[in-house]
Specification:
The chain is α/β, with parallel strands linked by helices and about 290 residues long. About 45% of the residues lie in helices and about 20% in strands. Helix 7 links the parallel strand 7 and strand 8. The longest helix is centred in the first third of the chain and has 36 residues.
């Protein structure tokens, strides 16, 4: 394996999607010949906030003594979180090794996940992360609290995992004709990740005038790259609705699309298409920046 390339970085936290995150990271790494790094974060922000909140309710006479006890309890909790994280990383390492990855790296860090990923960005080839962590794992109508910030902050491909691992055979590219979409097409054509897969190139039109012929130059670019079987399709309707329906109908294993626009005001006014797809899609989304 080429250890000089950037790594496939898998973020794990012990949620129900952790195993799938490991499996998809191993699958990507094998196809693009890149090493794997497993990351576990310990965020102490909530611990400090909890002590501060409780200390404000302690009576004057016993405040100092009880605050010391609270601090000692939180220190013990921190040690337990540290040990739990090490065990998670060890289990994840064993899983990706069993999947065929030699010498995966592990990293346990303290602090903000978003800030750590920004710091590590130059060493990331693809980020693999669950759609929601332990806090929201039983809330299917929500995405992870930090996921949107991560997607907006990084400029590397991000695979958002939302289901158990299944080696992709059919992918769908949600194409909208923009410069960003054309850049994504170039990335797909150049990457070994998609070789041997069936690619459904799908455009959602506002009217019935567009035809599959309009997509032909884009399809030809993918086909000429070699190793990609391309099926073009133009759909009518609300993008997030018809794309998810098409995904179900054609047993699509992974959706490839551009991420949030850079115009935050636009997203506030119209609602983010990326967020809607994250919430509605039943299979992983590979977001290209």
């Amino acid at each position: 394996m080429n250890t000089n390339t950037n790594r496939v970085l898998a973020c794990i936290d012990g949620s129900s999607l952790t195993e799938a995150v490991c499996d998809y990271a191993a699958w990507i790494a094998q196809r693009v010949d890149a090493p794997v790094k497993l990351l576990h974060m310990i965020d102490h922000h909530h611990e400090t906030a909890a002590i501060s909140d409780l200390s404000g309710n302690i009576g004057l006479g016993s405040q100092e003594h009880l605050l010391e006890e609270l601090t000692a309890v939180e220190q013990q909790r921190s040690k337990l979180r540290l040990q739990q994280g090490k065990l998670l990383l060890q289990a994840a390492k064993e899983r990706v090794i069993q999947a065929g990855i030699a010498n995966p790296d592990t990293n346990q860090r303290h602090g903000s996940l978003v800030e750590s990923l920004i710091e590590l960005e130059d060493s990331i080839r693809v980020l693999v992360i669950g759609i929601r962590g332990k806090v929201h794992e039983n809330q299917p109508d929500k995405i992870g609290a930090k996921l949107e910030s991560i997607i907006r902050s990084l400029h590397k491909p991000i695979l958002v995992v939302n289901d158990a691992f299944k080696a992709p055979q059919r992918i769908m590219i949600a194409y909208d004709g923009s410069n960003a979409a054309d850049k994504a097409i170039d990335m797909v054509a150049a990457s070994p990740l998609y070789k041997g897969l069936t690619c459904h190139l799908v455009y959602v039109s506002k009217d019935a005038t567009a035809t599959e012929q309009w997509l032909q130059p884009v399809a030809d670019k993918l086909t000429s790259a070699g190793g990609i079987d391309v099926i073009s399709k133009i759909l009518l309707g609300k993008p997030e609705q018809v794309l998810c329906e098409y995904q179900d109908k054609h047993a699509i294993d992974m959706v490839v699309m551009g991420a949030f626009s850079h115009t935050r005001i636009h997203d506030l006014l119209l609602g983010s298409f990326t967020t809607k797809m994250l919430l509605n899609a039943k299979k992983p989304l590979l977001l290209l920046r």
